[in-house]
Design brief:
Shape: globular
CATH superfamily of the largest domain: Histidine kinase-like ATPase, C-terminal domain
Number of domains: 3
Strand order of the largest sheet: 2-4-5-8-7-6
Distance between the termini: 51 Å
Structural class: alpha/beta
Order of helices and strands: HHEHEEHEEHEHEEEHEHEHEHEH
Largest sheet: 6 strands, mixed
Oligomer: single chain
CATH architecture of the largest domain: 2-Layer Sandwich
Number of helices: 11
Radius of gyration: 23 Å
Number of strands: 13
CATH topology of the largest domain: Heat Shock Protein 90
CATH class of the largest domain: Alpha Beta
Helix content: 40-55%
Length: about 375
């Protein structure tokens, strides 16, 4: 029985990896075309590309949730309670959903009560829970605003969430509510409901979904936290201006569909300053490194002839961290392996499919 459980978890991980790899060119090539600096797209063409990119990101979101649940149940997620601004996390999660919706932006009202705004919480799971609740409330309310009321003590975060038209006293007390009948939900709404319940359970929390007298949903959550601590101010990172610097970007990846968006981004953002070279296998990469000294290497972890973890150690025999940056370029669910990757010789990680702006920012930051 244990063997079947492990096999099932690995199968989901492999499927997630392949879906992410396939989504990478879909999302990023449509994103590059939508930038359309020369204004060559017609209104209809832009709308078509927006639909492609939006739905690609929706598929990616669902795959990420599935992967996270799979890793959690396999014991591969390390619960990390770190200082976080609850209001910032909530607004960021809602804005992410708003960015790819087609019915306008989502306004977010977040009211912080006792306990303060800055607490220790597992931010990764909390972001996913807020995102799922946002998707659920929009699937049943079709509203443009969300109300959040938050309070916390030494070991618990209490969160009440409702859609527009919610009376603030209503959101606070939760009185005059009746249990929500999930049987009346559409398939889409039921999906987000079940995902939310699963994520809350994985986080060690409890929840109750109710229906108010006006028919709108109201969700009550209790999630575990650590004691309140101030959030450390983030250091300002100065990125050197590299607009006029030529550099070489090496991609070691056996998937040609991954190379195309990388080349397109390099041409679009850096023009002739970025030279992209490519190797399909680890052995080709090593041979190429004997003739070319790149500034940055994007290294896939799943090459046909050698594991990326082994290859990065060989690369470090050629170049130190001070001379060449090696970035793990993967669609795998890394979980606890992130630290292991850095210790093996990688400088950074880019998860496929990547966001164009994040990709550009990381490339700029690693140009030596």
């Amino acid at each position: 029985m244990e063997i079947k459980k492990e096999t099932s978890a690995e199968l989901i991980s492999y499927i997630s990896h392949e879906i992410k790899n396939s989504l990478n060119p879909v999302i990023n090539l449509s994103g590059i075309m939508l930038k359309d600096k020369l204004r060559r797209l017609s209104t209809d063409e832009r709308e078509y590309l927006e639909v492609i990119e939006r739905n690609g990101r929706k598929i990616l979101t669902l795959v990420d949730y599935l992967s996270y649940i799979n890793r959690s149940k396999s014991g591969k997620v390390n619960r990390s309670y770190a200082p976080a601004s609850i209001k910032t996390v909530i607004e960021s999660s809602v804005n992410t959903i708003s960015a790819y919706r087609n019915n306008g932006s989502i306004s977010c009202c977040c009211i912080i009560e006792n306990g303060g705004n800055e607490i220790q919480i597992d931010s990764e799971s909390f972001k996913k829970i807020i995102s799922c609740i946002t998707e659920f409330l929009f699937s049943i309310n079709e509203t443009g605003s969300l109300y959040f009321r938050v309070s916390s003590d030494s070991d618990k975060l209490s969160l009440n969430v409702s859609g527009i038209g919610a009376d603030e006293e209503y959101v606070r007390s939760g009185e005059e509510c009746e249990p929500f009948d999930s049987a009346v939900l559409s398939e889409t709404s039921l999906l987000w409901y079940l995902l939310t319940e699963e994520l809350i359970s994985i986080a060690g929390g409890q929840s109750e979904l109710c229906r108010k007298s006006d028919g709108k949903a109201l969700w009550f959550l209790n999630l575990p936290v650590s004691q309140n601590v101030p959030v450390a101010e983030s250091e300002s990172v100065q990125v050197e201006n590299v607009n006029n610097r030529e550099f070489v970007l090496m991609v070691i990846d056996d998937d040609p569909d991954t190379l195309i968006p990388v080349k397109a981004i390099a041409e679009h953002e850096f023009g002739g300053l970025c030279r992209v070279v490519h190797a399909c296998t680890g052995s080709e990469g090593i041979d190429l490194l004997g003739r070319i000294r790149p500034d940055i290497i994007l290294l896939d972890l799943s090459l046909p002839d050698i594991n990326g973890m082994s290859l990065v150690r060989s690369i470090r025999n050629f170049f130190t961290r001070d001379t060449v940056a090696v970035i793990a370029f993967t669609g795998h669910d890394l979980g606890l392996n992130r630290e292991k990757l850095v210790n093996s010789g990688f400088d950074d990680i880019i998860i496929k499919p990547f966001h164009i702006n994040e990709f550009i920012q990381k490339i700029r930051s690693w140009i030596k």
